[in-house]
Write a structure and sequence with these properties.
It is a single chain. Helix 12 packs parallel to helix 14 (about 290-310). The protein has helices at about 5, 10-25, 35-60, 70-85, 90-115, 120-140, 150-155, 165-180, 185-195, 195-200, 205-230, 245-255, 265-285, 290-310, 310-325; strands at about 155-160, 160. It has a two-stranded antiparallel sheet with strand order 1-2. The longest helix has 27 residues, at about 205-230. Helix content is about 75%, strand content about 0%. It is an all-alpha fold. It starts with a helix and ends with a helix.
C-alpha cells in the first residue's frame, strides 16, 4: 500500500495529533497531567465551539468561510456586558448576546447569498466592522464585574471537570452531530456543499441552506464569547483576536473539505484537542505567543497541502520508495 493510501482523512489527523502531543510533552511535560488537561480543556471549549460554526460554513460550499468569528465572539460578549451594566437581568443579557451573535451571522449570510459577494470579502469586512463596533461601544475599556452566579459558567467544576465542558461543549457537539446526521438540513448541507447543481435540481434552496450555516456560526461564536466572559469575569472588546485562524485550522484539520460538503464532528473535536494542546504547551513553556500562532499557521498550511495538493504525500512516497530500494 502507498503512503498516500495510508495518510488520508482520519489517519492524517491522527498523525498530526500524535506529533503535536509528542512535541507538547517535550516542551512542557506537565501538559500531559490530569490537571494540565483539565485546565487546557477550559480554553478548548471556547475555540472548539467557534470551530463548529466554522465547520458549518465551510461545509456549505460556494467558497464559504467566515473570517469574522473572532469579532462576533468579542462583540457578543461586549453586548452581554453592556446589558448587564445597565441593570437588566442576567438571563435577558445572555439572550440578547445570543441573539446578537445570530443576527451578525445572519447579516453575513444575507450579504453573501443575496448580493453574491465572495464570503472571504464579506466576512473580512465584517471582521473589522464588528471589532470596530465593540471598540466604539466600550471605548476600548473592558466591562466588569458580572453577577457572581454568572462566574460558574466559565469557572465552575463538576467532579474536577470544567462545567462548560460537561454542560455546554458536549451537549453542543451531540446536538450538532444529530443535526448533521439525522435531519433533512444536515443532508441538504452536505449536498449543497458537494454538488450545488444537484441540490438545485432536487429543489433545495442553496441560499437558505448557506444562510442557516452563517447564522449558526454567529450563534456558536456568541456562546463561546459568553463562556469566555464568564471565565475571565470581564467582557473584552479585543477578545477572540486569534480565534479566526485557530477555528479555520481546527475545522480543516478535523476533516472539513475546503470545497464543501464534508465535515466531521468527531474530527473537529480531535483537532480542537490537538490545537488547544499545542497552545497550552506553548504557554506552560513560556514561549512567545507569536510562535504559537506561527505553529498553528504551519499546521493549517500542512493540512491544506495534504487536502488540496497532496505534495507532502508524494514526498513521503518518494522517501518510502527510496528506503525500500536500499533494503
Amino acid at each position: 500500500m502507498t503512503i498516500s493510501g495510508i495518510l488520508k482523512g482520519k489517519e492524517w489527523l491522527l498523525m498530526i495529533f500524535l506529533i503535536i502531543v509528542v512535541f507538547s510533552a517535550m516542551i512542557a511535560p506537565s501538559s500531559l497531567s490530569f490537571q494540565g488537561i483539565s485546565a487546557m480543556s477550559v480554553y478548548g471549549v471556547e475555540i472548539g465551539i467557534v470551530a463548529f460554526g466554522e465547520m458549518l460554513v465551510i461545509m456549505s460550499g460556494g467558497g464559504g468561510i467566515d473570517l469574522s468569528v473572532g469579532s462576533m465572539f468579542a462583540l457578543s460578549q461586549v453586548i452581554l456586558g453592556i446589558v448587564v451594566a445597565h441593570g437588566f437581568p442576567l438571563a435577558l443579557a445572555v439572550f440578547v448576546s445570543l441573539l446578537s451573535g445570530a443576527l451578525m451571522g445572519f447579516l453575513n449570510g444575507v450579504v453573501i447569498t443575496k448580493l453574491r459577494i465572495p464570503a472571504i470579502i464579506v466576512t473580512l469586512a465584517t471582521m473589522y466592522a464588528y471589532a470596530g463596533i465593540a471598540l466604539v461601544l466600550t471605548k476600548g475599556i473592558d466591562i466588569s464585574p458580572f453577577p457572581a452566579s454568572f462566574n460558574f459558567i466559565g469557572q465552575g467544576m463538576i467532579l474536577d471537570i470544567p462545567f462548560q465542558l460537561i454542560a455546554i461543549y458536549v451537549p453542543v457537539a451531540l446536538l450538532l452531530y444529530i443535526f448533521l446526521q439525522r435531519t433533512d438540513y444536515g443532508w441538504n448541507l452536505k449536498l449543497v456543499g458537494s454538488n450545488a447543481l444537484a441540490a438545485q435540481y432536487s429543489g433545495i434552496s442553496l441560499n437558505k441552506v448557506r444562510l442557516v450555516a452563517y447564522v449558526g456560526a454567529g450563534l456558536l461564536s456568541a456562546i463561546a464569547g459568553i463562556i469566555d466572559a464568564s471565565r475571565l469575569v470581564t467582557a473584552r472588546p479585543d477578545a477572540g483576536s486569534t480565534a479566526n485562524l485557530a477555528a479555520i485550522t481546527i475545522a480543516v484539520l478535523g476533516g472539513t473539505k475546503l470545497q464543501g460538503g464534508e465535515g466531521s464532528i468527531g474530527g473537529t473535536i480531535l483537532a480542537t484537542l490537538a490545537i488547544t494542546w499545542l497552545g497550552y504547551a506553548f504557554g506552560l513553556a513560556n514561549i512567545n505567543a507569536v510562535y504559537e500562532e506561527g505553529a498553528v499557521g504551519i499546521v493549517l498550511l500542512l493540512t491544506i497541502a495534504a487536502q488540496e495538493q497532496p505534495i507532502l504525500l508524494k514526498v513521503f512516497e518518494y522517501i518510502h520508495s527510496g528506503d525500500s530500494s536500499h533494503a
